[in-house]
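Shipment paperwork, digital attachment
Item: protein structure file
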Amino acid sequence: MPDVKKAELIEGVVCLPSPVSHDGHGAPHADLITWLGVYNASTPGVQVSDNATVRLDGDNEPQPDALLRIIPQRGGQTRDEAGYIANAPEWVGEVAASSVSYDLYDKKEAYRRKGVREYLVWRVEDRAIDWFVLRGGNYERLKAGEDGIYRSEIFPGLWLDANALLDGDMRQVLDMLNAGLQSAEHAAFTVSLT
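Attachment content:
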């Protein structure tokens, strides 16, 4: 299969995603990675990854659009295995256009079962963000604050203005993230990672 660029093993089934468009995936994916990259640059002890295979178990080797993890040397739940990430990253994000059917079902179930603590799905065609937090073994929707801002429970300071993201207003997305990076919670988190 030399022409295959991406294949994922989800619940024992090989999934070959459809071709991706600029509007439906490429540009939103770049925005998601930019947001996470800025957080990564300001938070020692975490790593962001783009489209890396994650070895969850024998039936699940997804290739999430984005992930954020606490590095193993700083207490994270993943481990490094021959250049791959093994075990569940703390945070996973997917940009879903053609893949929404398995991003919100089989893949979500695999992530839940294996312990991905936060899972974000950006449903591009629906203009919606679904952010889930693992609590008591089940995913619950993370609620935005009264100001409309999502605040990660696992990565303090990882704040998201979802409306700005959906509108493609990356200046506002990064302004809100920078506010999170200036918070006392983020400062305490960075100290805990060192």
